[in-house]
From TrEMBL:
Coiled coil: none annotated. This is MutS domain III. GO terms for biological process: mismatch repair. It comes from Chitinophaga arvensicola. The keyword Transferase does not apply. Belongs to the DNA mismatch repair MutS family.
Length: 437
């Protein structure tokens, strides 16, 4: 089953976006090759839902975090090799020799460069395999070619580079016939094996690169647990895009599955909620996460409602768009899915009375879905007092504001309870808006 995260959630959390410098994807996208970028994108598009697979991938990243490695391959050479293998070759050596002879004739007759380009591609392929030979020797010498994430790559490289049929790889002045035979061997006989080697090579690049990012950022690796454990415990949680972010702890279980979050504007509620969603998403990818410690039960997906837009084409107001969002989540949790749900200021598009009633009713109803975890923020702190009668399934926490005269200071540290902080008018007055009017 695929991990659920719809476009609204992906946009709310700024998870994807190669050309968005502030996306989580861009944070990790320091790979150099197109193949590596394609694999990284696939990992972001398809988080895992099996605890063993998550932990296996996480262990690979952790290995390269503990055992630093450099990626010795040239981007251009790998790209040329991939294009060359995709083009392929004729089905047998005589046909390959005839086709290359025809290219040689056209090169002499009409100065066609197809033969020259083909020879360049062969040289690029040979260059990659020579780098493989050097790297493989180093891994074998250090004993890292077995029982490590390098093993699949090493086995694949060993099978190809030590095949006697490719002995002309190391010949500096190859004859025309030798080039034709190499072309046949590389683009036909070993084509699929070389494609597999390329795939493993791109995988190594992603492992090395992502591990480097995680180490530089001080991220940790989460432990995935089976779904039936039904818990989430994370310490030192922060937003991965903020270098000096204040860290907080989160804890959910079947007996405490709703976090009711209050706090003034600018106190950090939205940032904390986004950080929590990103944390869960990256954890399901097996990636390093912005925390100091984390263990979590595998979930079916994440839904968020942070920046819900109206829809002029469909005639939806902001409030109605919010209602539809809540309805979508209600349908999913009612269908038995285990979800992490973020609602930032429920029903802010309507009047205070309706918002109070709706927030109270929806939050109370969500407590019944014990296999889902919810973070619900609101400025209507009075809802919290009414929710206390619902039992112990709701955690009440807030992000405080410390007033220094007329200037608010925000600690960004979670505290237990419900806050009545409201500094909206103070901020407006501090900006001198009323004096202007």
């Amino acid at each position: 089953m695929s991990f659920i995260a719809d476009k609204q959630t992906l946009d709310d959390l700024s998870l994807l976006g190669k050309y968005n410098p502030y996306s989580v994807f861009s944070l990790f996208n320091q790979v150099k090759t197109r193949g590596g970028q394609k694999l990284l994108d696939q990992m972001f598009q398809h988080p895992l839902t099996d605890a063993d697979q998550i932990n296996s991938r996480s262990a690979a990243f952790r290995y390269f975090s503990d055992h630093r490695a450099s990626f010795p391959f040239e981007e251009e050479a790998l790209g040329n090799m991939e294009a060359y293998l995709d083009e392929g070759c004729a089905g047998n050596f005589p046909m390959a020799l005839w086709q290359m002879s025809r290219k040689k004739f056209t090169a002499l007759a009409v100065k066609d460069d197809s033969l020259s380009l083909q020879l360049q591609s062969i040289d690029a392929c040979i260059g990659v395999l020579k780098t493989c030979t050097t790297l493989l020797h180093q891994l074998e010498k250090e004993g890292r070619d077995k029982n490590s994430p390098w093993q699949k790559w090493a086995d694949s490289a060993r099978q190809i580079t030590r095949d006697k049929r490719l002995e002309h790889l190391h010949t500096s002045n190859r004859t025309f016939t030798q080039n034709a035979r190499l072309h046949y061997l590389l683009a036909q006989v070993f084509q699929e094996q070389l494609k597999t080697l390329l795939a493993h090579t791109y995988e190594m690049e992603v492992y090395i690169t992502v591990a480097n990012v995680g180490r530089e950022k001080g991220f940790c690796y989460a432990t995935a647990l089976p779904k039936e454990k039904n818990l989430l415990i994370a310490h030192g949680v922060r937003h991965p895009g903020l270098d000096k972010a204040v860290a907080n702890s989160l804890s959910f279980s079947g007996n405490s599955n709703v976090l009711f979050l209050t706090g003034a504007n600018m106190a950090g509620k939205s940032t904390l909620m986004k950080a929590s969603g990103i944390l869960l998403y990256l954890a399901h990818m097996g990636f390093p996460v912005a925390a100091t410690e984390m263990q979590f039960s595998v979930l079916d997906g994440i839904y968020s409602s942070v920046n819900v837009p109206d829809d002029l084409d469909k005639g939806y107001s902001h409030f109605y768009a919010e209602v539809l969002r809540v309805k979508k989540v209600a349908e999913e949790v009612d269908a038995g899915k285990s979800l992490f749900v973020i609602f930032d200021e429920l029903f802010k598009g309507t009047n205070v009375k309706d918002a109070y009633d709706a927030t109270l009713a929806v939050t109370a109803a969500f407590t019944a879905f014990r296999e889902c975890f919810f973070i619900i923020s609101t400025h209507i702190f009075e809802v919290g007092d009414a929710l206390k009668a619902e039992g112990d399934h709701i955690q009440f926490q807030f992000l405080p504001t410390v007033m220094e005269g007329t200037v608010p200071r925000y600690t960004y540290l979670l505290q237990k309870g419900i806050t009545q902080d409201r500094q909206g008018m103070i901020i407006i007055e501090n900006e001198g808006i009323l004096d202007m009017l």
